[in-house]
Design brief:
Blueprint: E1 10-15, E2 19-31, E3 34-44, E4 54-55, E5 58-59
Length: 69
């Protein structure tokens, strides 16, 4: 995991469908179906995400619907 990443850090994410999105890192670590890959859970400022912090039936962080990615 990049030393520049931490929970609470503001980030920008480039997406193919919505362009550049801004948000805050809410979670760092492996997810259940990809335990060896580092993952970053981001709460987006706008409802252009895919979830509310839940992935694969497991809650990683909490945010409004469609604000998580």
């Amino acid at each position: 995991m990049d030393d520049e990443m931490w929970v609470g850090r503001r980030v920008q994410i480039a997406t193919t469908s919505h362009g550049v999105l801004s948000g805050t890192i809410r979670w760092l670590g492996p997810i259940s179906d990809r335990p060896t890959n580092p993952n970053v859970g981001v709460e987006l400022d706008e409802p252009k995400g895919r979830n509310d912090g839940m992935c694969g039936g497991r809650r990683y962080f909490q945010c409004q619907p469609n604000h998580g990615i």
